[in-house]
Write a structure and sequence with these properties.
single chain; alpha/beta; 8-stranded antiparallel β-sheet; 6-stranded antiparallel β-sheet; globular; binds 5-amino-5-deoxy-1-O-phosphono-D-mannitol
């Protein structure tokens, strides 16, 4: 949830740290801080608020330091305040932390009983106190670190610096993501790869349960487990993401840029995979016999990725005639799930680090299911722990509201359902070829929708005072109703509910009064007549119908506003019906003056339960 960054090398550390923190700010923006070291010892600057607030606090010229660490916080323990901001220091030991220390109460009580005085309400502060305690008892800092980490419960990533080791950074990964960036006589660490893209494209993805010691010239990776002192071999990866991918490139917000990237990201996701079923399943570690032997899929995900899973269910059941259960990842492990023989589990996660999704994946694996993940981040935890990975090629997604990851996930799922259908013999060769051709038309259809968006801002201007929204869809459009509502509420803060249109009369219809905005996803598919009836029901109660449809003639006189989309194969309409909804939420939030890329209370990667 928080973002951490560290630097040691020949550059001024503070500009690198501030720049890295800006790129990590999507992970949390309640407070921010940096620590650096030079001849004057340890200097710490921290404040409530955002990185720009931290910047304005820094002395000018910036302290000339070649080593430092930084933090941007999403508050878990303790309110957003400068006191609770990281780095936390005890003596001249500074610590930044992402994650949660579950047993901090008992550790804090123990340390307080020994006379340690705490200055914050955070769980993090026990860590520098433990380190200080062990060092005072005569341990070296590396030994103190091992001992301290051994008593911590929870999942975390840590960065540590001390004036006892002036040119050295330490970083620990246990449960929360951490990457090491390799430069020329310089090293970095950060919570994710995009934070460091301006400086390097060479990374080591830290394994869970490891500690790294970094100087400008050296990197030593070790295991944390007691007694395990053997060095961990380093596997350097080179990423093809560019720094520009993590920039706004002229757009007002990352979200708008990412919405407009979708023709390319969907295309890239399709083309990143072999053009035949055998090739795909081979890469996923599944033989044709295994695919034919499957009896059930379980897909688990959170938020937007969960909505992609619901679309995936429609596609897989339709094309591959395989039963699919879709699970909210945070619920999965607590309901004693049934994992029968022949069950394949699929997690869907943009970040690959969502704690609940990882826990669901581990639970399914523990119960004997094979696990695949549909994931956007190379080498993320979900990707490393799953038996196979279908990578989406969305590139770095920075806006907290997920857009391009969603359509890329649907792209991966449609490809998967098509290839499952081919191997399982539920599609004829002709059907397979024709659906594949249809799939390849999706990027152009999205481009077409994006060329006709001018009216959406004008429409949004009329909606900013709305007290609530209802989004309705049927069949494969129902998840799009959920997704449209999620986008609206998370960035504009207007309550919005997504509902299956046929269910409306069982409750939500009571919400409709004169002028209530009701967004209806109405593609011309087998359920079109049904959704027309639902529109009539809304109109009869005074609702203001905003319809997304490829059949405008049939809606004239029925819908109050029309957001037209081109026609597409009925199984693929979610790719284009979601685009106007992303834009409607975006412009509504902009007109209301909301912080689109950093909505309140949210963080991009939810790495805590
Ligand atoms: O990285 P993940 O796909 O696992 O993230 C899942 C959700 O946290 C994410 O989709 C969230 O709902 C977004 N803010 C939605 O826009």
């Amino acid at each position: 949830m928080c973002g951490i960054v560290g630097y040691v090398g020949k550059r001024g550390a503070l500009p690198v740290l501030i720049d890295g923190l800006k790129r990590l700010e999507y992970r949390g923006y309640d407070s921010a801080g940096v620590a650096c070291m030079n001849g004057n010892g340890l200097e710490v600057y921290k404040t409530r608020g955002k990185i720009k607030d931290l910047e304005s606090l820094l002395p000018r010229p910036l302290p000339d330091a070649r080593i430092g660490l930084g933090h941007t916080r999403w508050a878990t323990h303790g309110i957003p305040s400068s006191r609770n901001a990281h780095p936390h220091t005890v003596g001249a030991i500074a610590v930044v932390h992402n994650g949660i220390i579950e047993n901090y109460h008992e550790l804090r009580d123990m340390l307080c009983a020994e006379g340690h005085a705490f200055t914050s309400e955070t769980d993090t502060e026990v860590i520098p106190h433990l380190l200080y305690r062990h060092v005072r008892q005569g341990r070296s800092l590396p030994d103190a670190l091992r001992e301290a980490v051994a008593v911590l419960k929870g999942s975390f990533a840590l960065g540590i610096m001390s004036d006892s080791h002036p040119g050295t950074l330490f970083a620990v990964r246990r449960g929360s993501p951490l990457v090491i960036g390799m430069g020329d006589n310089e090293h970095f660490f950060a919570s994710d790869i995009p934070a460091l893209l301006p400086y390097t494209n060479r990374f080591v993805l830290m394994e869970d349960g490891t500690v790294v010691t970094l100087t400008a010239t050296d990197m030593i990776l070790d295991r944390l487990a007691p007694g395990e002192t053997a060095s961990v071999p380093r596997q350097v990866i080179e990423v093809d993401w560019t720094p520009a991918m993590a920039e706004k490139e002229g757009f007002d917000h990352f979200m708008l840029k990412e919405i407009h990237e979708q023709p390319r990201t969907v295309h890239d996701t399709f083309s990143g995979w072999p053009a035949d079923a055998e090739g795909i399943f081979d890469r996923l570690g599944l033989s044709p016999d295994m695919v034919r032997g499957l009896r059930r899929l379980q897909i688990a995900a959170c938020g937007t990725s969960y909505h992609a899973a619901l679309v995936g269910r429609c596609l897989i059941e339709r094309l591959a005639r395989l039963p699919v259960d879709v699970e909210i990842a945070s619920e999965y492990r607590y309901r004693d799930p049934l994992v029968e023989r022949g069950t394949l589990f699929i997690s869907i996660t943009q970040s690959g680090e969502t704690a609940d999704t990882l826990a669901a994946q581990r639970e399914a694996q523990r119960r004997g299911a094979g696990a695949l993940t549909i994931c956007n981040v190379l080498g993320s935890t979900a990707a490393r722990e799953a038996g196979g990975v279908l990578y989406t090629k969305a590139g770095p997604e920075i806006g907290v509201a997920s857009t391009k990851a969603f359509t890329s996930q649907m792209a991966a799922l449609s490809l998967l359902s098509l290839e499952l259908g081919a191997v399982r013999g539920t599609l004829t060769r002709k059907e397979y070829a024709s659906f594949r051709t249809e799939l390849m038309t999706v990027p152009a259809a999205i481009r077409e929708v994006l060329q006709h968006t001018a009216g959406i801002r004008t429409l949004a201007e009329t909606l900013t005072a709305a007290r609530s929204f209802l989004y309705l869809g049927r069949g494969i459009s129902y998840p799009i109703a959920l997704e449209g509502a999620l986008k609206m509420k998370e960035i504009s803060y207007i309550p919005a509910e997504g509902y299956p249109a046929g269910e409306m009369k069982h409750g939500p219809i009571a919400l409709i009064e004169e002028g209530s905005p009701v967004v209806v996803i109405a593609p011309r598919d087998a359920l079109f007549e049904k959704i027309l009836s639902n529109i009539e029901e809304v109109k009869a109660r005074g609702g203001r119908v905003i319809a997304v449809s490829d059949h405008p003639e049939a809606l004239r006189g029925k819908a109050d506003e029309l957001l037209p989309v081109p026609s597409l194969h009925p199984a693929l309409t979610p790719f284009i019906t979601v685009i106007p909804l992303q834009l409607l939420a975006y412009y509504t939030a902009v007109v209301r003056g909301c912080e689109v890329d950093q909505p309140r209370n949210l963080a991009k990667s939810v790495t805590v339960e």
